[in-house]
């Protein structure tokens, strides 16, 4: 059976007791909904793409400066394991920890913020590098 295709999300801001579409495309899609029609809304605060970009840029610089991992991806996986952002998987009768996803779909902004703080603390402890060090070097 073919999977029903989902429409992309509509992003909105709260103003008083109203939700206002963030961009023209969002407002246009809202306008297509019949006046008075009941709609379902799943509230998920949006992730902040700049924070995710900062994280990956920072770990890239740490990896290049320290040679601690062969790739940014490998370093990212190790950070997730070290900070406990993992999922349990049963493998050959044993529970093992695998790195969890930090993708927008899998992790909300609040959880990513906690992960980011843990990651920065781990990097500072283990490698003695903080974001300000990278900014000064740039």
From TrEMBL:
It comes from the Bacteria. This is Uncharacterized protein. It comes from Rhizobium hidalgonense.
